[in-house]
Write the structure tokens for this entry.
Amino acid sequence: MLNIQIIHPDTFNPEDHWYEKAINATIHPAIKFFFNLSNEQIAERYCHLHPKVKKEYLKDILNYNAKHYVLSGADLLHVTTQEGNRKMAVIENNSCPSGQKSMPLLDEYQEAGGYKRFVDKTILEKYPSKIKKGNIAVIYDKNYMEASGYAHALADATNKKVVLIEYYNYKDKSHIRLSKEGYLEYKNEHQWTRLNFVFRYLTQKPWNRLPINTKTTIINPIITCLAGGRNKLMASKAYSLFNAELAENNLKILTPKTIWDVNKEEIPLWIQKFGGKGVIKIPYSNAGQGVFTITSKKELDAFMEDTFHYEKFIVQSLVGNYNWSSVSDEGIFYHVGSMPNKKGLSFVLDFRIMIHSTKNGFRPLSLYSRRAKKALTDYLEEGESSWEILGTNLSIKNKDMSWSSDTSRLLLMERKGFNQLGISVDDLIEGYIQVVLSTIAIDKLADQLKTKKGGLKLKLFKSLNNDQILINEIASEINKQ
């Protein structure tokens, strides 16, 4: 039974949209300070520490007005080199990022927190006419806690009813369609209703449920997923293209060494080139699915024996402990990790920074961290699972295809636990700039992939991402429109 709800104004309940451990947490002063820095202050500080970077160029970057990719979340690793040069490296970008439910309130008197900031400063300011014209919906396939939070924030901000629509099964399109006029419509109790504005929280192959080209405004549009927000292979190429421009201004999107367009049979050769250790990724998966850390012949053999739906993979250098990280032409990156606990144990961390595009440029929206299950050891024992030491994602896919989260490994930006993260305001600035740069790269590629009529340049896309199974999925949906 499909779940379609009508959300009315003035019904926002904070307990429904935050984890319990987050709603009662007090924001750490350093995080509050960082979130209140202006882009001008951030540029000043960054250029003071990186004097070769052109200040005016960086200010323009931070004040960039995104055309398509207006809500972004990137996962970052806090890494260092054998010389002790610490960096924040981008692991992946996410066009339907979670984060609001894990972010303590910046202002305890503003109970809707980041949900309201995003709606007020992005949706209302960038799309006022779209909001006023007609019906509004939030369409989701996971993370009901946050999806419903956005629906309530939209209802409050617009003083209008908002439709909250579940859409898990891409094969069941009985309640969503594209009208002859080119608008999305939803069906509720035998009646089809036009939607003028949709906030989308579809994370699993969104291109097989929502159209690329529609008169309904969708945030984020599907083109952002194809250009890198839900496609790690295209994201890597977007970063490479934008890095050519950034290099002239002494900036760079920093990632592990990445090899793209890899066929399965080629993978052992690339793992060998990285010193027998690497990370294999199915480019179109998310939520920790389709990522394989390889530190031994056993793990590589297990991967090679498996079967996969898609044809192309990406292979990246592995960031681990200094003694067992990949070796590449860019050197060795290894995890800084958490501060050691009383037992002397340190854990791998990643950081999710969400940003949104406003009339005055990008702004940080939420921030949280996650740790791995097992401690980061100096040496791996024979047969030990590297994923339990390196994997940080909290999402758990249940047998019934629903999702849950392991919140025991969630680390909040609050007074009690912040110091164990081992980061400073300068690290946050480094991470924020990396997220902005990677988001702009994807936004620019999305713009290049989009036709004048709003569709996808399929030939150009195929030339960049020649995975025939993916192409068939996209073409099949285009032909139905």
